[in-house]
Design brief:
51 residues; mainly alpha
């Protein structure tokens, strides 16, 4: 028994896409744009002693 080439290729493509997607998310996560809202809120909460 062997999987059909088409099904194998599709599964490989999905795996590659999910790996690339998670890598892109992980890479984009730690560096928000400088003037983003979460950073401003974090700075405000941090300096006000809320954190």
């Amino acid at each position: 028994w062997a999987p059909s080439p088409l099904r194998w290729a599709r599964r490989e493509t999905e795996t590659t896409a999910s790996i690339a997607g998670s890598a892109a998310r992980a890479f984009a996560q730690p560096t928000p744009p400088p003037a983003s809202r979460p950073t401003a809120c974090f700075n405000r909460d941090y300096h006000s002693g809320a954190l």
